[in-house]
């Protein structure tokens, strides 16, 4: 009788724990992606060299000429984000980070179907701001 009762309680509770685990994991992954976006200016400043954030599959950056005093942008480091499993990133237009850590602004879209997080990075600090989360 006791085992039947425990089995019934587990059958009711197990799906709730699975959903809770999924929501918590998603929240941690989202927080990690935002942290990585916040750390990009510091990474560029520490490297002392301009950087470009673009689609991971992009071959050649399509970015404007550098500002006076900066190294040519063909020498800019390609910035990468460490994406959690099954997430994808889209950068509609490459985002230039100057050697000082300032950036020219842009958009970043993270996707984990059916979720999509659209961030706007406003210059010069490029702090991520969610404009659309579905």
Describe this structure in words.
The chain is α+β, with helices and mostly antiparallel strands and 134 residues long. The protein has one domain: minor pseudopilin epsh fold (3-Layer(bab) Sandwich), CATH 3.55.40. The chain has 1 helix and 7 strands. The strands form 2 sheets. Strands 3-5-6-7 form a 4-stranded antiparallel β-sheet, with helices on one face. Strands 2-1-4 form a 3-stranded mixed β-sheet, with helices on one face. Strand 6 and strand 7 form a beta hairpin. About 4% of the residues have low confidence.
Give me the secondary-structure topology.
Blueprint: H1 2-47, E1 51-53, E2 77-79, E3 88-90, E4 95-97, E5 106-112, E6 115-122, E7 127-133
Parallel strand pairs: 1-2
Antiparallel strand pairs: 1-4, 3-5, 5-6, 6-7
> What percent of residues adopt helix (DSSP H or I)?
25-40%
Looking at the structure, what is the overall shape? Answer: elongated
Helix and strand string, N-terminal first?
HEEEEEEE
Biggest sheet: strands, sense, closure? 4 strands, antiparallel
**CATH topology description:** minor pseudopilin epsh fold
The total strand number stands at 7
> DSSP helix count?
1
The secondary structure category is alpha+beta
Q: What is the CATH architecture descriptor?
A: 3-Layer(bab) Sandwich
Radius of gyration over all CA atoms, rounded: 20 Å
Poorly predicted segments? 68-72
Distance between the termini: 46 Å
How many structural domains in the coordinates? 1
- Proportion of residues in β-strands: 25-35%
Mean pLDDT across residues: 86
How is the largest sheet built, in terms of strand order? Answer: 3-5-6-7
What is the CATH C-level name? Answer: Alpha Beta
């Amino acid at each position: 009788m006791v085992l039947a009762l425990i089995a019934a309680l587990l059958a009711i509770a197990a799906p709730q724990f699975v959903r809770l685990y999924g929501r918590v994991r998603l929240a941690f992954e989202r927080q990690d992606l935002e942290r990585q976006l916040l750390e990009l200016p510091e990474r560029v400043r520490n490297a002392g060299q301009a950087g470009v954030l673009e689609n991971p599959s992009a071959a050649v950056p399509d970015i404007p000429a550098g500002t006076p005093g900066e190294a040519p942008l063909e020498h800019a480091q390609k910035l990468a984000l460490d994406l959690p499993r099954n997430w994808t990133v889209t950068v509609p237009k490459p985002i230039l980070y100057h050697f000082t850590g300032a950036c020219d602004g842009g958009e970043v879209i993270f996707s984990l179907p059916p979720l999509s997080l659209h961030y706007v990075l406003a210059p010069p600090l490029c702090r991520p701001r969610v404009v659309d989360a579905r």
